[in-house]
Amino acid sequence: MNVLVTGGAGYIGSHTVRALLAQGHQVTVLDNLSRGHRDAVPQQVRLIIEDIHHIDKVRRILETAHIDAVMHFAAHSQVGESMENPTIYYDNNVVGSYCLLEAVRQAGVKYMVFSSTAAVYGEPEKTPITEDMPYCPTNVYGQTKLMIENMLAQFSRAYGLKYVALRYFNAAGAAADGSIGEDHTPETHLIPLILQTALGLRKSIKIFGTDYPTPDGTCIRDYIHVTDLADAHCRVLSYLAQGGVSQYFNLGSQHGFSVRDMIETAKQVTGRDFLVEEAPRRAGDPAVLVAASGKIREITGWQPIRSSVETIIADAWNWHSHHRSGYDVSQ
Ligand code: UDP
């Protein structure tokens, strides 16, 4: 298929681009490079530097490249930033996605795979989380992703677009060959921050909240390897192409690890010790987010294969220790 990947120069998008290429798809990347990295896009892939807000330009790109499917990753994704500066989340995520959807509608693209999040569930009533549980985001980021899911459902109903929204739990890790990995500016995600601390690039790792109702008082998350996520995107594309109905799938390992667990595992995997500090809670963080991901396993045969926390941290460590400054300067 001809696939357009928005945000294909970003973290999850770039890993998915490689998975799509390995499956024989023709891939075009559309990215405004506001947060993505040119070097994350393989040489043989056409990179179009454009913004999803430009409906006419995006429609022309879709038509000219005869795009069958759009995979939509282009979004801001930081919980803390979304609480401090909601306007950029509504503009980039909600308005941007509306514009992209309108271009998709006008160009008659058949399929869309959307990069959604477990944050749509907010603070769940029970765990693990199944797809039918209530939506009640506790942060602006999750709210914007929920609004986009609703737009997709409405466009699907009205115009026949077929889509899957993938609700990621905590994406982590890096390509096993060390070619691409996670590089955000500023970095806010737990594993890269821990590893930068292990490398001596940061003074300490702060634990945001030690009074949560969890066994060790720190937040529990379900970490899923980015290459397992990428594989899921290829599988749902085949599912849609084979006539699968539009729907949502959780993507997680079904195992929860606390912030303290992750710090201890990182110390073992890296063989380094580093300073850990306790800090207040971060706004908008639910205590526990663990996926039930039986639905996608059953329907598409997806299985996470690199998502033990040891493998996730080892792959991430391989990337970070060889790219101390991310994509800018390899050392
Ligand atoms: N976290 C932390 N210290 C940090 C960064 C994150 O304690 O420096 C915690 C955060 O509060 C959350 C978990 O680690 O409970 C995962 O956070 P991250 O930002 O990686 O992902 P999120 O769950 O927000 O998508």
Walk me through the structure.
The chain has helices at 11-22, 55-64, 79-84, 86-107, 140-159, 190-198, 226-241, 259-270, 294-300, 309-322; strands at residues 2-6, 26-31, 46-49, 69-72, 111-117, 162-168, 170-172, 204-208, 220-221, 223-225, 247-251, 257-258, 275-279, 288-289. By secondary structure, it is of the alpha/beta class. It has two domains: 2-172 and 223-251, NAD(P)-binding Rossmann-like Domain (Rossmann fold, 3-Layer(aba) Sandwich), CATH 3.40.50.720; 190-221 and 254-322, UDP-galactose 4-epimerase, domain 1, CATH 3.90.25.10. A seven-stranded parallel beta sheet has the order 3-2-1-4-5-6-11, with helices on both faces. The protein has a three-stranded mixed beta sheet with strand order 12-9-14. Strand 1, helix 1 and strand 2 form a beta-alpha-beta unit. It is globular and about 55 Å long. The two termini are 37 Å apart. The model has no long low-confidence stretch (mean pLDDT 96). Bound molecules: uridine-5'-diphosphate. The site of uridine-5'-diphosphate has 15 residues, from helix 6 and strand 8. Homodimer. Belongs to the NAD(P)-dependent epimerase/dehydratase family. Pathway: Carbohydrate metabolism; galactose metabolism. One of its GO terms (biological process) is galactose catabolic process via UDP-galactose, Leloir pathway.
Keywords:
331 residues; alpha/beta; UDP-galactose 4-epimerase, domain 1; 2 domains; 3-stranded mixed beta sheet; binds uridine-5'-diphosphate
